Amino acid sequence: MAISFRLNGKAVSLDVEPEMPLLWVLRDELGLTGTKFGCGVAACGACTVHIDGEAVRSCSFQAGEADGREVTTIEALARGERLHAVQQAWIKHQVPQCGYCQSGMLMAAAALLAENPSPSDDEIDEAMTNVCRCGTYNRVRAAIHDAARLQREA
Fold first, then answer.
1. pLDDT of residue 65
2. Looking at residue 52, what is its pLDDT?
3. What are the structural domains of the chain?
4. The pLDDT value given to residue 38
5. Torsions phi, psi of 143, nearest 5?
6. Per-residue b or e along 44-69, where b marks 16 or more CB atoms closer than 10 Å to that residue's CB
7. How does DSSP assign 78-125, residue by residue?
8. How is residue 62 annotated by DSSP?
9. What is the pLDDT of residue 25?
C-alpha cells in the first residue's frame, strides 16, 4: 500500500504494509536512525516522534495511520545549525549518560513545551513518561524548566 506523509517538512511516499510500525518505516525504509527501538510495546518512549505536533510512540503507531499527516523526528528538532531550546538545555544540564533514550526524551519534552510553555514539576512528571535507565529524571526536569525559560526569552 502506498503511504504518503510529510516527514521533517518534506513529502514522502512509499509502499509498505499499513500495519508496519512507523518506527521501522523511519529506521529501515527511510534510514533515519535517531529514533530508537527500546521495548516495542510503547512503554519506554525511546521511539517518540511527533505526529501533527503530538508526541507519539512510533513502535506502536501503524504506518498507515501516518498517511496524510506531518511526522517529525529527532533529526528535524533543530532548525539548521540552531539547536532547539530543549537540546540547548539538555547540553547545559548534561542530561544524557548513556544517551539511548534521549532522542525520545527530547521529542517528548519539545511536545510538552509546545503545549505548555511553563510547566510545573508535577506537569513535567505527568507528561514525561519516558524511561531512562540511567535515572537522569532530576536533570530532565531542570532542563525542561531551563528550555521553557529559553523559549520565553526568544
1. 98
2. 98
3. 2-76 (3.10.20.30), 85-153 (1.10.150.120)
4. 95
5. -65, -40
6. bbbbbbbbeeebbbbbebbbeebeeb
7. SBTTB--HHHHHHHHTT--SS-TTHHHHHHHHHHHHHH-SS--HHHHH
8. B
9. 98
Higher pLDDT pick, 99 / 147 = 147
Cα–Cα distance for residue pair 118/67, rounded to 1 Å: 32
Q: What is the pLDDT of residue 1?
A: 85
| Residue in this structure with the C-alpha cell 511526522, named with its chain if needed | 71
pLDDT value of residue 40? 95
Q: What pLDDT score does 137 carry?
A: 95
Burial class (CB in 10 A: 0-12, 13-18, 19+), 86: buried
45 vs 129: CA distance, rounded Å: 7
How many helices (H) and strands (E) in the chain? Answer: 5, 5
**Which residue, chain included where needed, has cell 509502499?**
15
The C-alpha atoms of residue 109 and residue 106 are separated, in whole angstroms, by 5
Angle, alpha carbons 29-2-36 (nearest 5°): 30
- Say if residue 60's pLDDT is above 90: yes
